[in-house]
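FORM 7B: Structural annotation worksheet

SECTION A. Query
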Amino acid sequence: MGITTKDLAQLCGVSRTTVHRALHGGGRIHPDTKEMILHMAKEYDYQPDLLARGLVKGRTYYIGVVVLDVQNRYFSGMLNTISREASKRGYYINITLHDGDQQQERDQLTRLAAYHMDGIILSSVNEGEAYREFLNSLGMPIVSVDNKIADGIPFVSIDQRQAMAEAVQLVLEKGYERIVFVCPAMQTKGAQNIYVHQERRKGFEEARKGHPQVEVQYLLDWSYLDHIEGLTRDAKRTAFLCTADDFALEIMKQMREKGKNPPVDYGIVGFDNIDTLKYISPKLVTISNSVDRVSAAAVNLLFQLIEGKREACGQENTMCEILPFELMEGETI
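SECTION B. Predicted structure
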């Protein structure tokens, strides 16, 4: 059994209250006394009893994180940042993956609530008022990342719509005669929450208005790769605007196998700015969705909720943060 605060107090000849002040801050304590206590704690390998500390404060010092998967580089980057930011606050994270399954997500949230997480960060495939009621019934703070669930659920993202609109404008300025919107996730519309992709499509539609001379095509299901080559056979300068870097990279791979490369034979833009892109040539033009900033903001917002602090938001009855994005220069258009 490890050394306790009672043992430390006896070793240092001080009260347990003084030991707690040295270890956890708060209250008045002489610097020399604090230094002595911390030195003894290190020498005797003192480990805090988080369970006991949590029982006193009514916390477990764990937050849950529920995301799609870790194969997607966006989510792996998100988890790294959340873990780092939580650790700064003395917290650990409990990670679960719903793999796009709505019921599995619900089950995972119920289990995390049963383990008394102090809060949860969620990238959801569920949405709507009924799901908001379910989340509220769990009795803990929850922050939604990217996919908005419903008004009343705190939410952090970038301006997805404006980001895609700026990408379209860039392509139009380059003089492309055909633009192809690539969003296979639209195939699951109505079956799961695709708020992010819907917002990006809205941005695409808004930006293409007023340009009737430009042909517009859509690839909105998971057979999108079957149609790529056919859209680049004629003389029209064609650009693909993808709602994820993964889609763009798959297109580039397939076209490279056919001896075609951007920007000579076609143009292409991705979305996410995943870290894998630093290994890709030519450099993909993409939108940075600021995953580090979004994730850090989600943690900060969650701890505001945990600590009972609330701030006003532009959306009615919802705490939210809409963060800046960046259109990343590249060589593919």
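SECTION C. Observations
The two ends are 64 Å apart (CA to CA). The chain has three domains: 5-48, 59-157+291-324, 160-288.

SECTION D. Sign-off
Analyst initials: ____
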